[in-house]
Write a structure and sequence with these properties.
Blueprint lengths: L11 H13 L5 E5 L5 E5 L6 H19 L1 E2 L5 E2 L6 E8 L12 H13 L3 H12 L7 E9 L14 E10 L10 H6 L1 H10 L24 E4 L5 H6 L14 H13 L4 E3 L1 H17 L13 E3 L7 E3 L19 H9 L13 H4 L5 E4 L4 H15 L7 H7 L9 H8 L8 E4 L8 E6 L5 E2 L14 H8 L10 E5 L5 E2 L4 H11 L4 H7 E5 L11 H7 L1
Antiparallel strand pairs: 1-2, 1-14, 3-4, 5-7, 5-8, 6-7, 6-9, 10-11, 12-13, 14-15, 16-17, 16-18
Helix pairs in contact: 1-8, 2-9, 4-6, 12-14, 13-14, 15-16, 15-17
């Protein structure tokens, strides 16, 4: 770090202006991609606040409906319901913007509401409710969290207008619960989730989360807990709560714009989903790609599967990486690292020809691999043969050597044993790389609304190498040179002298004298030369300047 810049808090009005300005800059922006064959295509660039993003969120909600309850896909296919009796719950979590009569800053308020769910235990309480108290498996429920502004459509939120609150839509299968469409007991289980939010969120109060006033969790939809036992259109049901706004940002109410500036300023996500729901959405998109004439994907979701060691299902679709609705017994667990090492080292033979298999044939799923040296099996045999020869008075025949070690040296290695006994080493490195079928598209340019092209900067944070003062002095002064015969480093400020590499003196300059500038350090540095050989690389900067 080279300097500190003080940043003052912005007013809400300034944040709103900056938010809308940033959004407007996306108008007309396009990204051009190209590959090595000279092919190009352009796509419009959008942020997460436009009409396209709202439509995408709505489409994801509809995808969940199809995957869990069945239905027709826009691409023409039909989804089979993954759950026997799907239902939804809506939990509303909020907080006061004036808990003690003093206005809470909007970003601080949003942080408190979100952190209660993500970090302070509400999400864990929800998981315990679904899996421990209700007894569902991890793949029989999921949640979709969506932040929304108060004050929309005249909801009477008063002082909380423009501030945030959360809707947590919970999808779950009621068939394992055996409730016969009676969800009241499920609603009472969700009360502990509301209690946890009120407990951990600093600005949350009981008055806004009073579930005791709700007489029927299914019939009433305006409380902090709401259930729907048989939603024919679950996607629309949840989308009604989850920002199903399809108009352009600038056409939305001022409450939404002011609320949006909070999330834009704080760079905070306003939606999140559990892995189960994310995988269901990915599976629906995978099915649609397989059915689309514009896609090069031909396999339907789950037709081809692979093993995934990451979090979640082990057996996943090769096309989309989702394990949704895929039988987890279709694949066995992959071999361990030890077994893989043995496989790479094994001298496998083809069943048809009896020839030795190549590395590529022994590892058909690898994109690339290399083997250096001989196999572990051959190394073990080599050591055994060499040990035998060391203690033998007479050199035995190959078959005698194998006979003595029949349990350790298979007969098929007779030729290799002979080469070892003759002092030969025929091990050669072996490698392969399979051609990738993926097209190598890269971002070539950003094109603005006027047609002007801009080189992409890669996005993210620009990284620069960091050199600490000691390292800079070592690299940029005479200390970078090696001392010659009769030479010694000396500090002209205190006469500290040292005959070794320059590290000690670089630390001395920084630690003892506070010198961090290489040029200043080079002027303080003296090279004492016993033989007066006057090497040019060791001359003092002043001497070099005078001679020039």
């Amino acid at each position: 770090m080279t300097e500190l810049a003080k940043r003052e808090a912005s007013t809400w009005a300034d944040a709103l202006s900056a938010f809308l300005t940033a959004h407007a800059r996306y108008d007309g922006l396009r990204a051009r991609f190209a590959n090595e064959q000279g092919d190009e295509f352009e796509i419009p660039l959008v942020d997460a606040w436009g009409e396209e993003y709202s439509k995408k969120q709505y489409a994801r909600a509809m995808a969940l409906q199809r995957q869990m309850a069945g239905g027709d896909r826009p691409s023409g296919g039909e989804s089979i319901a993954a759950w026997d009796s799907p239902a939804t719950a809506m939990l509303t979590l909020t907080a006061s913007s004036v808990p003690d009569g003093t206005r809470v800053p909007p970003v601080e308020h949003a942080d408190a509401v979100h952190d209660s769910f993500s970090y302070d235990g509400v999400r864990d309480t929800l998981r315990n409710t679904m899996e421990y108290h209700l007894g569902l498996d991890a793949d029989q429920w999921g949640y979709w969290l969506q932040a929304e502004p108060h004050g929309m459509d005249g909801d009477g939120s008063g002082m909380n207008a423009c501030y945030t609150h959360l809707h947590v839509g919970v999808y779950f299968d009621t068939e394992p619960l055996g409730l016969d469409d009676d969800l009241h007991s499920v609603g009472t289980e969700f009360e502990r989730v509301i209690d946890k939010h009120v407990e951990v969120c600093e600005y949350a109060g009981r008055s806004a989360h009073d579930y005791d006033t709700i007489t029927d969790y299914v019939e009433e939809s305006n409380g902090c807990i709401s259930l729907n036992a048989s939603v024919e259109n679950m996607g629309s049901y949840l989308a009604a709560y989850m920002g199903g706004y399809t108009e352009e940002l600038l056409e939305k109410p001022i409450e939404y714009l002011a609320w949006g500036s909070i999330y834009w300023s704080a760079a905070r996500r306003r939606t999140s989903r559990s892995k189960v729901l994310t995988e269901a959405i990915a599976a629906d998109a995978c099915e649609q790609r397989a059915e689309s004439d514009e896609s090069n994907q031909t396999d339907a979701h789950g037709d081809a599967v692979v093993w995934d060691d990451g979090r979640g299902p082990d057996v996943v679709c090769e096309c989309c990486g989702s394990g949704w609705a895929i039988d987890q017994s279709r694949l066995d667990a992959p071999v361990s690292d030890d077994d893989l090492s043995d496989a790479l080292g094994a001298e496998g033979e083809s069943d048809e020809t009896g020839r030795e298999l190549t590395l590529a044939e022994r590892w058909p799923t690898a994109t690339a691999a290399a083997s250096v040296g001989e196999s572990t099996t051959k190394t073990r045999i080599r050591k055994r043969v060499e040990t035998e020869l060391k203690y033998c008075d007479d050199v035995p025949s190959v078959h005698a050597m194998i006979g003595r070690n029949i349990h350790e040296i298979p007969l098929k290695y007779a030729e290799f044993v002979e080469s070892v006994m003759n002092g030969e080493d025929d091990s050669e490195p072996e490698s392969f790389r399979r051609a990738s079928l993926d097209s190598e598209w890269h971002l070539e340019a950003i094109v603005d609304r006027d047609g002007e092209e801009h080189a992409p900067n890669g996005g993210g944070v620009d990284m620069a190498p960091l050199k600490l003062p000691v390292q800079r002095i070592l690299d940029e002064t005479r200390l970078r040179h090696s001392l010659g015969r009769g030479e010694m480093w000396r500090c002209s400020k205190c006469n500290f002298a040292y005959h070794d590499d320059g590290t000690m003196h670089a630390r001395h300059f920084v630690g003892e004298h506070g010198i961090t500038d290489p040029e200043s350090a080079d002027h303080v540095l003296v090279v004492d030369d016993y033989y007066d050989e006057d090497r040019e690389c060791m001359r003092h900067p002043a001497e070099r300047h005078d001679s020039g």
